[in-house]
Every structure is written in structure tokens, then in C-alpha cells.
Amino acid sequence: MTTPHVGILGLGVYLPARKLTNFDLEKMVETSDEWIRTRTGIVERRIADAKEKTSDLATKAAARALKDAVISAQKIDLIIVATISPDSNFPSMACKVQKALGASDATAFDVSAACSGFLYALTTAKQYIRTGMVKNALVIAAERISGFIDWKDRSTCVLFGDGAGACVLGKVRSGGIIADFTRSFGKYGHLMEVVAQEVRSPFDPQRTMPAQLPRVVMRGQELFKVAVNSMAEAVEEVLKKAKMKKSEVDCVVPHQANDRIISAVARKLGIPKEKIFVNIDKYGNMSAASIAVAFYEAVKTKRIKKGSKVVLVAFGAGLVSAANVVKW
Ligand SMILES: CC(C)(COP(=O)(O)OP(=O)(O)OC[C@H]1O[C@@H](n2cnc3c(N)ncnc32)[C@H](O)[C@@H]1OP(=O)(O)O)[C@@H](O)C(=O)NCCC(=O)NCCS
Fold first, then answer.
1. According to CATH, where is 3.40.47.10 located in the chain?
2. Which atom in ligand 1 lies closest to the alpha carbon of residue 221?
């Protein structure tokens, strides 16, 4: 029996309507549009409203991907949500999406791999399909990261935004996701983390409530270097697995953390910047959702066409890196 090809059958995104521009941020912290644009490439980002939860963003993107794939929720037998900003520790976002969509036959769980989450989820779902455990999978990346940002810390608050992207995976006759690479470097965990999640203890009355809301802290410069190296390595490794040369790549969709990181990766790999899809200006860093949304936009704007060979590549807190080659 030949191993089936697994490909993307449909794509969808959901982006909250409300925009937060660099000029809005100028009124909140000591920063400037010029600094943010030149250091990161970001112009504006979307912020979910107070009532919109991560699971709502995930469900809306997923419903659109199902429509695009022309498949009903009842035919989905696996749902994976990549997120580091869930509504709560449990139930999982995937179970909430399952309920909202009425995908009653699906197995549902979340994946936590920060900005690489969408690619980790894609690779996981692909293996479920290849081994015959499931037929159709819904892979969603959804982040409401604004809830974990210290909006008084200019070194982090200018970088992030909220959003969600989703895709339906299933068997295809040829092409599809033709290679995968994942790697983790726990030793770099301190470069970006969520702090102030104090553990409550029944034996210590002082520690029954968290002292402060959880918030993202980051060592930006150190992270920058590791990001460039790990993304370049991931591209080299995944191309080896796909038995492809860099010159054969039509489009690279990288994680959108900083346009200077993206340029440095392109230089290191010797891939022309024109082949790299960038939309960080509109959304900032949406963690796991960045690649899902960028991939959708690259397809819908015909930067990715039928037959295009595409490399998806990410790095994220953990530190975790990942890449996939997709033949569209
Ligand atoms: C965060 C990042 C944009 C900062 O850019 P940088 O060029 O490294 O800037 P630095 O941290 O060296 O700061 C330079 C100066 O700008 C200041 N600064 C930092 N944030 C600022 C802001 N929003 N507005 C204005 N000034 C700012 C710093 O205080 C520093 O001032 P100083 O020279 O007087 O000390 C960059 O390091 C980066 O993108 N790192 C990777 C982050 C990342 O990828 N995170 C997500 C992982 S998925």
C-alpha cells in the first residue's frame, strides 16, 4: 500500500476588526511610529474586543476554512488548535471549537509551540492522516495575545497583535505537504516567557492569588540572533528532506516577528527577498496565527499559485523552530 499524500483542502482566517496603529501606541508609551516601523516593519495590528475570546477567533477562522474546502464539520475527525493564549487552561480550545462547529465525530486537542504552533499542528495532523487514523483534519492557529501583554512595556507591547487562521487537511493525489522539520531548544526558554503566573498553594495563605497578571517578557536582541539562525537551519533541513534546491523554491512564508529578522534569514539563505511573503506591517506578530494568516493571504493574492513550491518556516518561544515544504 502506498503512503497517501496529505494536502491543504481549504483555508480561512479571522482578524478582529479593531486596529491599533503605531500612532495610537505613541499615546500609550514612549515610542514613535518611526521607531516601530524602522525596527520591526509593523504599522498596525488587530486587537480582539473584550468579549472576543481565543476560541471565538478560532471558530470563525475554522468555519471559513470548512466553507473554502466545501466540507461539513461532521466530516472532520481531528481538530488541533495551536495557541499559547487559550481562554483558560481547560477545556481545550479545540474542544470548544468542536462544540461550536458541531464536529461531533472529531478528536480534539491543543498544541503549545508558541509562534511555531501552526507548523507543529500541521505536521501532527499530517501524520494522523498518513497513518490512516483519521481522514480529514482541521488545523487552527488562534491567538489573543493582547491579554498577555504589559501595555506599559514599550519593548514588547508594540510587537504583537491578535488573529486566527485555519486550514482543512486531507488526502490529495499528489504534492501537498511534502516535507516536515521540527526542532526544540529548551535551553533558550528564558529568552521569552510569560511571568507572574504564581502557583497557588493550600499550605501558604500568602499565595492563594497571583500577585500580578501574567505578562510576556523578552530578551529581544538575544532572541533576534537565535531566531535568524534557527529559521535558516529549519529551511536548510526541510529542503534536504524534500530533496529540493533553494533555487526551486517559489515562495517562503516565514513567521512574522520582525521584518529585519525576515531579511536577515533571506540573506543568510541567499534567497531573494522578493520570494518571501511579508504582511507584518498590517498585523504585527500574531504568534501561531502569523503563518496561518500569511499563507492564506499569499494564496488569495496569487503569490502562491497552483504548482508553487512553498516553504513555511517559524521560530518561537521555547525555543521551538519548524518548517514544511508544501506543493500547492
Ligand atoms: C525587540 C526588537 C524589535 C528591539 O529592536 P533592537 O534594535 O534590538 O532594539 P534594542 O532592544 O537594542 O533597543 C534599542 C533602544 O530602543 C529602545 N526601545 C525599545 N523599545 C522601544 C520602543 N517601542 N520605542 C522606542 N524605543 C524603544 C531601547 O530602550 C533602547 O534604548 P537605549 O539604546 O537608549 O538603551 C528586536 O530586538 C527584535 O525584534 N527581537 C526579536 C523579538 C522577537 O522576535 N520576539 C518574538 C519571538 S516569536
1. 5-173, 179-327
2. 37
CB 225 within 8 A of CB 231: no
155 CA → ligand 1 middle, Å: 6
Residue range 5-173 in CATH 3.40.1190.20: no
CATH code, residues 179-327: 3.40.47.10
Per-position pLDDT tens, the chain of length 328: 677 899 999 999 999 999 999 999 999 999 999 999 999 999 999 999 999 999 999 999 999 999 999 999 999 999 999 999 999 999 999 999 999 999 999 999 999 999 999 999 999 999 999 999 999 999 999 999 999 999 999 999 999 999 999 999 999 999 999 999 999 999 999 999 988 766 666 666 666 665 677 888 999 999 999 999 999 999 999 999 999 999 999 999 999 999 999 999 999 999 999 999 999 999 999 999 999 999 999 999 999 999 999 999 999 999 999 999 999 9
Catalytic residue list contains 95: no
Task: Give me ligand 1 centre to Cα 237, in Å.
Answer: 30
DSSP string, 43-98: -EEE---TT--HHHHHHHHHHHHHHHHT--GGG--EEEEE-SS-SSSSS-HHHHHH
What's the CA gap between 264 and 296, in Å, rounded? 24
